[in-house]
Amino acid sequence: MAGLAAAFGSGAMTNAVSELELSDTIFIIGSNTATSHPLVATRIFRAIENGGKVIVADPRKNQIADFAELYIQHNLGTDVALLNGMMRVILDKNLQDDTFIAENTEAFQAFKDALDDFSVEEASQITGVSVADIETLATLYAEAGSASIVYCMGITQHTTGVDNVKSLANLAMLTGNIGKLGSGVNPLRGQNNVQGACDMGALPNVYTGYQPVTLGPANKKFAQAWGVDELPSNIGLTLPEMLSGIEKDEVKALWIMGENPVVSDPDANHVVKALEKVELLIVQDIFLTPTAKLADVVLPGTSFAEKDGTFANTERRVTRVRKAVDPVGDSKPDWEIIQDISNRFGFEMTYTSPQEIFDEIASLTPSYAGISYDRLEGPGLQWPCPTKEHPGTPFLHKDGKFTRGKGLFHAIGHKPPNEVVDDEYPFWMTTGRVYAHYHTGTMTRNSESLDFEVREGFLEMNPADAKTLDVCDGSQVKMASRRGEILTKIMITERVSPGLVFMPFHFEEANVNKLTNPAFDPIAKIPEFKVCAVKLEKA
Amino acid sequence: MIDRVKEKINELLSEGSVKGVVALVTANGHVAPCLFQKGDDLDTLCLGDTEKSGDARYPLNRVLCTIARQYPDDVFGVLVRGCDERGLYGLYRLNQLEPDKVVPIGIPCPESLAQACECKKPYPDDIVAGEKFEGISQQGVEDMDNKDLSTRFSFWMDQFSKCVKCYGCRNICPMCFCRECSLECEDLVSKGDLPVDIPVFHLTRAMHMADRCIDCGLCEEACPSDIPLRLLYKKTAEIMNTEFGFTSGINKNEKSPLSLMGPAPEK
Amino acid sequence: MDYRNTLTTCTYCGCGCNFFLESLDGKLTGTIPCKTSPVNEGKLCIKGWNVHQFVQSERRLKQPLLRKNGELTEVSWEEALAFTASKLKEIKEANGSDAIGFFASAKVTNEENYLMQKFARAAIGTNNVDHCARL
Predict the structure, then answer these.
(1) Could you confirm whether domain A2-188 is CATH 3.65.10.10?
(2) Chain B closest-CA separation from residue A377 CA (Å)
(3) ipTM value
(4) Looking at beta carbons, which residues of chain C come within 8 Å of B29?
(5) Do the chains contact at B172 and C35, CB–CB below 8 Å?
(6) Burial of A83 (0-12, 13-18, 19+ CB in 10 A)
(7) Measured between CA atoms, how close is C109 to chain B, in angstroms?
(8) C5 CB near a chain B CB, below 8 Å?
(9) pLDDT band at C135 (very low <50, low <70, confident <90, very high)
(10) In sequence order, which residues have a C-beta less than 8 Å from that of residue B217 and are 6 or more positions away?
(11) Domains in chain C, ordered, with CATH?
(12) Among A36, A156, B4, B159, which residue is least crowded by beta carbons within 10 Å?
């Protein structure tokens, strides 16, 4: 999200999901939409029915690729090269939107100069995609009346994640495909309330609504509202930094609420070591996850079905969560647990309901100021919603008026992934989801219907590689990276090209994150889940 | 019409002839299935029309089955349109509900909804209130039949390829209640991957629904990929009608030809 | 007899689909997609359709656990909360505010995320708050 924030001033999806139906061209890159966001795929299928075109770029073929006007399978970790190649074509063919660029953007010249040294042939060589296909891709996108970009973790989970996103922003600005109905740049949020957690300031550098923690009016405002003399103004540690802080003896206590880093984080063996070392590990969860098993104290929270509250979805829409049944056993809503601990710690909290907490949020957060529980009866509200009368905002940056003023071009060159294949680790490996499971499987693997669909992990492998390794569908293989090794069943499929393997990350007993690379993007601190080098042998 | 429906429900509840009535309610700015019991406020009761008529219909018979399974000795009222009444007849026939434990509260569909559904019988036998419109011919099926085989084949294969295997068509269906589902039988349909096995997944369901489908259209409305399932099941129903003279739920006491042993009945 | 449909928002992906959790006498019996939701228009994916199944699973955590002699042992809320608060105090006093870190969550509500970062910043005095946005 850091990439979009730098380019446009706001790190969120620019359009409403339903607007995709109206797009003439949808460019999907690094998103397995039908599997991971099926209800976004609905809109994409409708766009196709409406005569729209879909173009897909992904190293692993996905379901929507079958419906694409053009599907290209570029090499893993070469997104910037592909996008720069497309932009080279657009400039060469004079397909850019000069008026939009002149009126609504800045730093275009520097961006253009940087592209001068880059040819489509070079892009083709790096990405493994033919010059002709890059040209078609660029033309289909640039010549559309309204074009939308849809991307997901296939773009962001790289050491070049921010560069990838900035390049997509460049592409949209270059062709004026932003700030219009059915035209924009749309990151699909992987988890139901990632948007909300960010909005709420569950980040080391900002309070709610992305107000900076550094010394300034926001810091003062929050200190006053929360009744403390001062608030820390140094930027805090990110999640991977907290884990390495434990190793360096700088972090002594960790409170984990509703996350399962032992399965979800890269280089899992390393994570386990850190969590075993930390002096106090508090885990608040609804199941005894592999992370909770390492805790000093486990606090049973409740699921979404047993409490009130709100979530914010991928299109910034805030909707209600309502209590359907009583909490199981002695479990308690998470807000009550935090309040109980806070009171015992000596910082008084006296909320009687989530609604009361929400009203405090609205009073401190300009983009949520107009939202209240009574206004959330019905379809919900998309922020920014600054006043009680404001109808909410379906799409951002209307008419080229970017949140940051002008849209900012960034000059970006291709950088290879942090880890590349070599003689010892000759296979590229990437990770993702399957349709029946979600994240670390804590919830979905405890649902009998979903467990029935997919009971165990598997590794996708091209038939040519299977032949070389002398394995068949369902065989066991040993897969190792520089960080660990696992045993897994294989599935033979042409979805992955020779030399590339894919594995879903939901399964703790075949935890692919023991292998993934914790190297992260220098700005967004996103680990490179999507690329690492592995070796394979028949087990 | 709605006032008459409320009156009827009020009557049933206050005289105690039913334990509750399954109908629709407006709550939280949305339409939801609901069980009204004695003393409940009927002001929020609605018929499932928001922007278009019948655009917020829910499988009320399915709700009724859920409740009746837990409370088998009680009598319940249920709001029914023509399709729902066909559903009740089917559920009686398949021993999922007992006719003397159900009091249908029938409403006819307006012409616009009957047209949109291409419904053969857009009204129940017993109507509490409202004016009924006659059935509509199955133009959609005819149009598809007029296309050549290869066009039809590629149309359906393209449509099926969009399936994201949510099982929504089955889950929303008021006529689906099997404990063991043929869609989950691995000898028929493989599991664990997208896209699903086509056309096996969809045709297996179409066959299974041949003598059950009541043409309510909820499956198609629930499909995230907008697969025209209703058209597929209408065609299956048409074959049942041509071959066996049977239409699911049209006659209250008619047995399905698929559950009879012996030679096919005379047409 | 208590039959209810409670309108809520899905806990899985970022689509944010709306559905009714159907319950009878306090037991969840099903999930029904909300037709009037502008997000999902009465449709759901396989995860959404089955979301009620894990909620009342036998494997849910029902009691606080505290590590005693190396084993996680069931304890009362009072004991778990008192231990947690006093231990946090002790570590803050010994090692400073920035020795404590918080993983908030994309799985809990806005209100709960807000409260956790408020506790971290106002009570503990650290900005070490993050969640799995990056994962």
Answers:
(1) no
(2) 5
(3) 0.97
(4) 36
(5) no
(6) buried
(7) 19
(8) yes
(9) low
(10) B83, B117, B230
(11) 3-53 (2.20.25.90), 96-135 (no CATH)
(12) B4
